[in-house]
Amino acid sequence: MNKRLSYLFLCASGLLSAASDWLPTFDDKPVAPSQIKAIEDALPHEAIVAPEVSRRILVFSATAGYRHGSIPSGRLAIEKMGISSGAYVAVVSDDFKHFEKEALSEFDAVVLNNTSRDFFMPHRKQRKEFEGKEWRWLQERNDRLVDNLVEFVENGGGLVGIHAASDACYDHPDFGAVIGGFFDGHPWRSRNNVTLVVEDPEHAINKPVFEAMKDFQIQEEIYQFRSEPYSREKLRILLHLDPKRSDAVEGMKREDNDYPVAWVQSVGKGRVFYTSLGHNDHIFANPLLLKHFLAGIQFAAGDLDADTTPSAQLN
Ligand SMILES: [Zn+2]
After folding, report:
1. Exposed e or buried b per residue across 288-301, where buried means at least 16 C-beta atoms within 10 angstroms of its C-beta
2. For residue 239, how far is its CA from the centre of ligand 1 (angstroms)?
3. pTM above 0.85, yes or no
4. What is the pLDDT of residues 155-202, one digit of tens each?
5. In this structure, are strands 109-113 and 236-241 parallel, antiparallel, or unpaired?
6. In angstroms, what is the span from residue 64 Cα to ligand 1's centroid?
7. I need a surface site. Which of 135, 170, 184, 313 has the fewest CB within 10 A?
8. How far is the CA of 205 from the centre of ligand 1 (A)?
9. What is the pLDDT of residues 112-164, one digit of tens each?
10. How far is the CA of 164 from the centre of ligand 1 (A)?
11. How far does the centroid of ligand 1 lie from the alpha carbon of residue 221, in Å?
């Protein structure tokens, strides 16, 4: 019996049914009516560029680590922004079935909305609910679905990572390379005020959003990134934090003082946009930042052409 047949036999025999049936459930708080109104008032009413064809994006918010309270706001804002701008149709779902190869191919881009840790796995606190072989089956499924996502991007798909999307899949270097960086703590906490510099104001993703703005202030939790795989040799940085004009904090680890906030890169034939903004609810009700997300989504979906020459190679 070959490997695939024996695997099918095992599944059919029911030995692995407990694990193979497992999907996460999340107990998110509904978005408050005042926040729904704030999101609606902030929505852009036109696309950054007209979509070439009707675009379909998956908004996925499964977590196996910290679950951000802003996930429902992110979902709602991205879904509604597709309708208000006409840029895309959002499928909002945490069902893993969308990450099977054929299902993924139906999307122009995948948005990882604050996904955390091994987001195709149960939380580690649930580990004891599974027998050894069940856990192994879950791990194999996790590996396969992460690989499918990486392959989807390499083959021409789009990926958008929001905030904790970089606090994920640490055992998958391919995922780290695609998302562009791994989270290494947040010296700036949710109530800190920070100054973000619009690096590269003429860039196609920045210009329609920030126009002539050189920088802006915001209250937000801001990440720093591990020394690997983050690199200006690979990524085109769009926004960074200026520590001198932000609240003084402890825990800054970067000797080069490089605290990027948003970037893009090309991966194979695909496109990746990542922004670490998205911890606080108000981020998803901020008209400027909704346009920032929209430009990133339209880039990832293939409509907004943008230069991905790494920042270190400019000049
Ligand atoms: Zn956060």
Report:
1. ebbbbbbbbbbbbb
2. 17
3. yes
4. 999 999 999 999 999 999 999 999 999 999 999 999 999 999 999 999
5. unpaired
6. 14
7. 313
8. 24
9. 999 999 999 999 899 999 999 999 999 999 999 999 999 999 999 999 999 99
10. 6
11. 6
